[in-house]
Fold each of these.
Amino acid sequence: MDYSADLSQKLLSKPFGDNQSQKSNNSHKTAQPYTVTIEAALFLCGNAHKYQFKVITLMSLTCLVAAFLNMGFPYLFDTPQVACYNSSQTKEEATYCSIENACSENTNYYYPDQNSNKSLTEQFDLICAEDSYEGISGALILLGGCIGSLYYADSTEKAGRQKVIKECMWIMAISSLLATFSINIYMFSLCLLFFGLGYRAFFNACIIYLTETTSNTIRQLAPNILSIGWALGQIIIAILAMINTSWYYFTFIYTAIPLLVLITFSRTIVESPRYLVMKKKFQEAKVAIISISKINFRPLPENLMLQEEIKQQAFKNNLDKILGGNKIMQQTQQNQGLIQTKVHSFKCLFEYNSLRIRTFILTYLWCLLSFAYFVSAFAIEHFAGNINVNLIGMGIGELIAYLYSGYISLRYPRKDIIRGILFTAGVIHLAFFVFLALDRTNSFVKIITFVSIIALRLAISTGNCVFNVYIAEVYPTSIRHYAFGYFGFATKLIAIFAPPFVQLCESIGTNPFIPLSIFFFIGIPMLTKLRETFEQALKEQVEEEESVFLQNDIPLISMAQKPVNLNR
């Protein structure tokens, strides 16, 4: 649903001021201010025009490039060919051998194929006792995502969306550049940690920014567009790896240079006007709106005024009339600041009755989807041994899922979509249990199992995008960044523990598919506790805070009528 028709009828409100002042102004032919809400102002300056498409293109391309390093681990840690010889042989007598033989006692080895396409495994000799560093490096990039989600959620509240987006782009560019000059695996792994930190925080901030600055249609497509960039990155990196798989190319040519180029285009990003209004920085909000309107070639009225700003000014005028006296006003302004400025944090997700149950249910469903996503990726690797086939196959599958997710996000209620995804995932996991009981060496069984895994991957990837859309809609502007930080943290935490859990299940001769199937079915009735957000306007404040934010003159004036002790 597009709000254009509704907005066009509600853009202008009554001129601010009493009737007497209006008559006086009319007598002097002074134009009255055009009073609009922040949503109407964004519609006037253009919320689906050139500026928005430039920003979306920049953000999706950044996600595409970031996928190169995130998804390039199979190439970065590719196992090289090894030649072995024992103590009674010379190096010239060495023959190709397996890693197990090379690491056996009384065996020497070396890398016979000396060329420029070195992996980190060969560069830093990570086989044998050092083979665990691949897993450690992978865990560190995920740990960076956890840290980035938590830290930059708070930074997004204090510093703003624009600053976080630009800062995270620099973090990714610098960390990938420094990784090129790594002298050992420890330095490289540290660079990966910062890269993961920057990317996850960037992704979260981008969804928040696009939610607050674009039209209803683009807002619903934003997570899908960013994810499409990621999926294309998986496909492109597999193609680039056919040219050169050197880890220097991955960090410098494929990642650092493109990111530095993209940073030069980020200067056009302005701060989110919704965020500035939430922080009561009305003049800065109008400057941002004017900047967007100029890029979109949509001129604004010279006397444009924000309804929120006028309400704030009216409140201050009322206080001045009621209180009078500078000292009392100073005391009241201090009290006003204490009441009006609400300091938010992660605990707000659980503090308010309107959010607590919602957050618990979404945490359960989000972690369940995330765990199944990484388990399916782990399972695919067992069926397709070729690295290029894995990445291209997963990339194409996710690309289809994100396109389909965008289609259904525009047409169907969120809860209906999520219910269908949970049911589909539950059924497929149940089918896995049956498939694994069959002869796994049979070609037909292997094909059916592999197709089922791909179908599961499609369903879960679709679910991830729909969940991002729902989270952006169900949480208000004042704490939306904390919601994305919290769920981003949960995603990366699940990603760290999912592979060891799967390996543990395999070692004890069991599989996680039956419990996962049950958990998916349990999640379906939980949806009744969530509110539907499809075709609903975004909320700016938590329900419990709306009366303070929108009608804060009532509690403050009541407080001001109480005696004030100026001698304290």
Amino acid sequence: MQNNLLNQSLRFWKLLFQGNIEGNTMRFNNNIGKGIVHAYHISDELEMLLFDYTLRKGIEFKFDTFDDKEVLEYVPILFGEPVDNKLMINEEDGSVDKININSIGAFCSNSYRSLGLDYTENMGKPLRFISIRLRNDVFQKYISKSENIRSLFNSEKEYFIYEEFDSSMKETFNRLYEISEDSDYALDHFEVYAKFLVTSFFTKVNDRKTISKSNKYTYHLDPVYKAKEILKDKANTKITIDELSKECGLSGSRLRALFKETFGITIHQFQQDERLETSRKMLLEGNMTIMMIAMELGFSSASHFTMAFKKRFNITPKEFQKKEYASKLSA
């Protein structure tokens, strides 16, 4: 059974998308777009909203229309989208700053009333995201487990915490969309997967080696997200920090600091991870030798590539190929 706050949240999305509510589901198919929002009261401690829609026209909305009681009783953590969207932040001077967020991930903030989402450039694109709502006392238990987490989620200061998905989080996110409501164990599956995403989010944040002293990310982050997109687009191209900083309009030291603060990983490590992810695709294609892949991705030698690959995936490139080929043959 859903509680009043979850019903109220579903009504918010009904008004935004001009849809209709039936049971725990809101559907819409109009000039705004076509889609569905499911609301699940999993337990007294945990609720979830699951979104799946495609827009026919661009929209903007702000979170400041949520009821104060809802904000105080439940803390939402958003997973998945925005993809190719802009996060809007209302600055103290009344201006609105828009940050491009171009990757699948999770974010949490204690200043949702100053936040919104800009979907004006997403017509025709399938959009998915999940809002996992933790009862406030449960959220406090999560952040009390680590000094790093307590420091970062300091309620006396404004924070916006973002973490990109790893492969297991992507897989779990996708599985949530595959669960049939008709299953007798649907809510059990939802609970297990939702808790895994929440725990993974806090674990990834806690694994950051450094914590920002101010505990508040700068909101002028377009250059940092631009740097990340350049690194993703040029995974097989060697790009120096000087070249990257010039393209982004920041000094090298400033870019390094903001990148680490925002994503919890160094530019060098992110670039290496992207190259290694690309190498897995190339290994599966089977068109190049390990030496050729190493040279193509800018590694100094095949042994250097093999060492980095094994450190990242706990398996050598050759073993990875054999394992995947064997899996295909047995399928």
Amino acid sequence: MAAHVSMLLLGLAIGWQCSASQKIFAAAIGPDTETTAMVVAVALLAAAVGPWLPGRLILGIARFIQRRSRRSRGPDDDLIGSLWVLRATGGRDNSLIWLSISVLACAAGALSLATLLLMGPVARAYHYVLQHFFWTNLTLSGLEWLGTALLIGPSWVLHGLLITTLATVVGREEPARQPPGLVAAIVAGPGLALLLLANWGAGALSGGQEFMVGVLPLFIVAALAAKMSQRTDKPAGVVTAETAAPELPGGAEGLIWVLLVVWGIAAALAGTGWVTCRQVGARSWPSPQTQWGWYLLLLGIGTAIAWRHARHQTRSTSGCGMAAWAAGAGAGATSVLAAFYPDNLSSTLLQLLLLGLTFGYALHYAELAWLARSGSEIQGFAQLASAVLAGLAVGFMAGRWWALDALGPVGLMTASALVMMALGGIVQIYEEDRPARIRHRRLALVFSSLAGAIILFPTATRRWDSWEAASTTPPIPTDLNWLATTELPSARQICLIGVDGNSSIQWAGLGKARVDIIPFPTIELARKTSPRPPGRTRVLRSSAFRALRLEHQLYDLVYQQGQPAARTDRYAEYSIEWLSRLSSLTMPDGEIVLDVPLGEMSPRAVAIITATLRQAALAPVRWTLVSRGGQPMIRLKANPGASIPASPSEMAWAAADTFTTDTEMPRVHSIQHDRLTPLLQKGPLPSTDELIGWLESCRSGTATQEASRQP
């Protein structure tokens, strides 16, 4: 049981460190989805390398010492066999195994702390080279991937090695009597960590504090392992050639290994699709972090249920093919429910159960099949962990950078369903331990369901596309009349963020200035723009978070139009990191203008955004009320570096101090300290008319203290 508790603690550490690293890298590099996805992909790939790379290094070092040794060796002199780490795992000396786990956990914790200390200097070095060298999108991507791998990769390699080392203390002569396996603990651990963060640490912990919390379980594992090493009196038995033989001879090892990799790819694709479906056209659903937490937790529960179902049978490939087919059927049923009942709470809960439990069920049977064909349980679990983690990394990268745009969220789930059902049928062909009659019935079920899925799944995908188009809030139309009439005479370099390119380039007078139009925060706006805009107008195809990292140009005016239909995670478009970046791109006498939609806002949130802009620009902020496409907005204006606000050209402008100097000063919103998300999700929000009334009372100086304290 101590091994399972240690694995659960390791899972908590993995979940907390991954979430914290995403926050820290988003604040240091940029809050775009490519950055956060890069952190997850590098972590998974490094953890996949962990189970086998250190062992190869130890053997290489030992052989090098043997070759370089000057003393004569006797017939019984085996330096490799005398290494205590290899002797512990080979001879099943539990005392040495627990001691090695304690050392590895301490090393992983110390290396994680060193990684946290290095993140600050590395971020400063990154911004230095970003400002002093010219970069293309390709070279910048290479720099970011290489730097991320060198910074967080070593600690995640040790995490992967710990996963495999903990498996050595679970292998026994009668594995069926053990509690649910380590796979359930390591899968459910990160999910539990994400759920605890979403319900307890959201907004309360910064990225660094969250990372420190994620390091603590590693030292608890080290202490527990050190205690267990003192309580173990005898080895668990020596692994001989007879006991090391696989339970099933060769035949389909390659196919089972492919199944493990494909399971990881399909689980990542299906999870990405389901989480994306829950975020389309919805404002009341939990955050993506919470949904990923529930999904991972259900995967672990599904693995435990499969252990319960198969606890009395010996390890074999029996049931592996049908379990893979069941996972595909679960993903297919989830995609159909998501397409035909997208906004139903009962349907959402059923989707989560079908997806998580069936994939967890398939993972346990794939584990049994692989370990049955492995010559060593330790080596087999290491290969299993590497295959699954690598598959998850490949699936996550494919979903984020290609499949989601090409297939859509429901298409991701249907693709993973078809692959798992087809591969389950192929594996079923090689299962020879069942009567021919049962095998034929199973194959008939598999391929008949595939035929039905090929007919049903395209219908579900088209149904989802229709519902998504009808339910998605259209972007706010762009109106730049105020810009063309009041700002252009003094502005020669203009940056427009989050505007519609087709309508922006048509406004009179914009052709005289150098105008950069950048989509924000998604790329759908850029796809509809004219391929050849007239005059000196340039449309950048990448997102604003990415595009402005490559720009060295300074602007007279930076304008950002908020889009409530496509808000970013943690409201990154209003964070101190992003607004400071906009401030650094302005001329000495330039200005920043923000249009913040008032829908789903609160007085406190408006005050926080205003205080954040004032802190980023280091200048007073003015505001006025505007309307775009029937959507009321508050327009904020600041001149970075100005000691006093410039004289407003219209009487409608007012100083923002009227609602930012109440008795409780609003704190600055940042990516690491998210002030807006917990505030806007914890209670009912005032209506737009009430919010406008509060702003008008602030303008006239009659706002009450109670109004300023509204949520």
